[in-house]
Amino acid sequence: MVLLLKETISFNRALTKNSISTKQVYYFSMEFLIGRLLRYYLVNMEVEELVRESLAELHINLDDLLEQEADPGLGNGGLGRLAACFLDSMAFGGISGHGNGIRYKYGLFEQKIRNGFQTELADNWLKNDYPWEIRRADKSVVVKFKGNVQTECADGKLVFYHEDYEPVLAVPYDIPVMSYDNPSNINNLRLWSAEPVSNELDFASFNRGDFNQAVSLRSGVEAISYILYPDDCSRSGKELRLKQEYFFVAAGLGSIMRSFKKRNFPLGDFSRWVSIHINDTHPVLCIPELMRILIDEEGLGWDQAWNITVNSISFTNHTIMPEALEKWPVNLFKNLLPRIYMIVEEIDRRFKERTAKQFIDDVQLIQNTQIIADGHIQMANLAVIGSSSVNGVASLHTMILKQRVFSDYFRIFGYKFNNKTNGVNHRRFLLAANPLLSALITEAIGPGWKKNAEELENLLIYREDASFLEKLAQVKSHNKTQLVKYVKENQGSDLDSQSMFDVQVKRIHAYKRQLLNILKIMHLYNQLLENPNSLPGSHTFIFGGKAAPGYHYAKTIIKLINTLAEKIHKESRVREKLQIVFLENFNVSLGELVYPAADISEQISTASKEASGTGNMKFMMNGAITIGTLDGANVEIKEAVGEKNIFIFGLAAEEVLRYSSEGGYKSLDLYYSNQSLRLCVDQLVNGFFETAGEEFRVIFDSLLLYNDDYFVLRDFDTYLEAYKKLQCSYTDKKHWQGLSLFNIAKSGIFSSDRTIREYAKQIWKVNTRRFDSYI
Ligand code: 26V
């Protein structure tokens, strides 16, 4: 069947009007979390049922077959999944938009929980070969590391020769990107794999008898695309990471330039025909690398090369966490990429010259905006200076970029800054992931919403329709049963499908505040012991997400969740009402099962810290109700549904940022003044968890000794209040179903089709055959 599909795809690819007069968009990203493709393709081609029946005749169960497909974990979380959603929406919108990334041999680790602790196993997604990729050895590119640069003057021009470099062969593997209803627009995700230039051993070393040297050269090269760095929590400053970044940038640009030249346009028109988008700072070397190609290989002068570069490149920032802003030590950078370093130095020199003239007295601004400072290269600064557009991923986040993170640049280049609120692929996360809800929606409002998610708003006429709402409730109940079955089969626990499913699935991070959720559950537990009637109904708290292997605090949070789960399970007085499960190995496929089954979506990050969040949108379109802070895209979700249809609590971003800059927060005061909060905090270390000893001391200390950086204690009370209100709503079934329907109906703007339409029109300036017809 895969073969048949591949045939169809390559037939359609041949039809794809990759006419030379179309602007090509290249989306450069270190991560693409594409998820499984087989079922997604069947749904998009509207043949799933046909295939299911035909296979049944051969005694093959389609679901068993689908389970065989690997889910490539080529990303850490939101950033990588967003890239995959964008590929789909570009293909759907009729944009010639292609992904450019790395074909890691090992993706994000597989998470196993042992005795409540996270352990990590290698993710060997290629072990049975990956059916969708096509190796294109003929399109390989040589990437050059290290060596020396010789400068000569020829005909009054400086010429640069890169000598004694270490060559690495970048071999592309292409994965077709095919979306719904678009047979004539198949795009490409090109992932690069690192190989030695010569497939033979280094015979010079070998013949000298230096076998180790011969082998290590080979494995040194292969190391570049060996594994995805698993932390989205710190910049590692490791040479291998910088190698990865330059590797896929140089390979991607090499291949773009090759195909551009085949089109025979003047080089001066490059930015008219090519847009290069950089997903966070990881691919920012696109800027000096494009300069290098234009100057060293194409012979252009600096100014012309700079205009072309800036006009072709656009940049998205995905986090304001200072720990995440990439910086490279000058020495490491210079040694690995000598020519690129010269170009970065020159960009910096020219930029400083400009700001020194324009802002004569503003020493601070001149200092803050330089690229090279304190012996480091600041990649975000290079990104802002070298691109024509800088965007944030939700309105609050963009405001913070303008007013804080990049405020000096905002004064210089105000015109570059813009917002593009994230979106998600509603055909994956609603149409394919929730077939019963999709069928119900289509029956009610027709199939138009699949192509134009904003048509979901037509569901509003059913808001008071008891029979429709009842059907909605049945769908939810069915989806919960499916998840219960999965948990039983895979983890052995029995969940109660009749209980309320309260879900927090995302990477484990201090700022995402899984801890606040845990303290809430501990509080409910304490209350139930005091008064068995303190809580209506029964509740299942579902957690999932990976912690970076080196992030000790986050791993302790996982252990705390599991320890509390066990404690509750053993306590007969509460276990009828409360239950916790930690879902092992949360990934795209598991997400597709979880979002449709959720009643409640926990989006409780410290305001200002979550750039956007995209899980919030996936839950919403599946009818879960959000409890959350005014952070990231929660702000826009609230605007879309109105404050009555969402449960908002906690400090505002302004307040958090004020505390951070002016001080004035004392977590100890709250600890002493709030008895029930104090009890929960004490329980982390006072023997309440019989088996824990000092295990949770780091968490206790983070709250009191280190003054609670993420304002968990500060938001505890308002969180509980909001939770209480939410529970009241939940007990009124009809009211709850109405809320759920309202959320689904208003979720259309969070389709990545909308986001891509905005990128296309406002940043890339490309025509979108399909989206144009909607406006
Ligand atoms: C986050 C953090 C937070 C803690 C400390 C250091 C650190 C380092 C990196 C990151 C995340 C890196 C970029 C990223 O994945 N951002 C995510 O991008 C999503 C898509 O735009 C967005 O929805 C998430 O809010 C944002 O965290």
UniProtKB/TrEMBL annotation:
<feature type="modified residue" description="N6-(pyridoxal phosphate)lysine">
    <location>
        <position position="618"/>
    </location>
</feature>
<keyword id="KW-0328">Glycosyltransferase</keyword>
<keyword id="KW-0663">Pyridoxal phosphate</keyword>
<dbReference type="Pfam" id="PF00343">
    <property type="entry name" value="Phosphorylase"/>
</dbReference>
<dbReference type="InterPro" id="IPR000811">
    <property type="entry name" value="Glyco_trans_35"/>
</dbReference>
<protein>
    <recommendedName>
        <fullName>Alpha-1,4 glucan phosphorylase</fullName>
        <ecNumber>2.4.1.1</ecNumber>
    </recommendedName>
</protein>
<dbReference type="GO" id="GO:0008184">
    <property type="term" value="F:glycogen phosphorylase activity"/>
</dbReference>
<comment type="function">
    <text>Allosteric enzyme that catalyzes the rate-limiting step in glycogen catabolism, the phosphorolytic cleavage of glycogen to produce glucose-1-phosphate, and plays a central role in maintaining cellular and organismal glucose homeostasis.</text>
</comment>
<dbReference type="GO" id="GO:0005737">
    <property type="term" value="C:cytoplasm"/>
</dbReference>
<comment type="function">
    <text>Phosphorylase is an important allosteric enzyme in carbohydrate metabolism. Enzymes from different sources differ in their regulatory mechanisms and in their natural substrates. However, all known phosphorylases share catalytic and structural properties.</text>
</comment>
<dbReference type="GO" id="GO:0005980">
    <property type="term" value="P:glycogen catabolic process"/>
</dbReference>
<keyword id="KW-0808">Transferase</keyword>
<dbReference type="InterPro" id="IPR011833">
    <property type="entry name" value="Glycg_phsphrylas"/>
</dbReference>
<comment type="similarity">
    <text>Belongs to the glycogen phosphorylase family.</text>
</comment>
<dbReference type="GO" id="GO:0030170">
    <property type="term" value="F:pyridoxal phosphate binding"/>
</dbReference>
<keyword id="KW-0021">Allosteric enzyme</keyword>
<keyword id="KW-0119">Carbohydrate metabolism</keyword>
<dbReference type="InterPro" id="IPR035090">
    <property type="entry name" value="Pyridoxal_P_attach_site"/>
</dbReference>
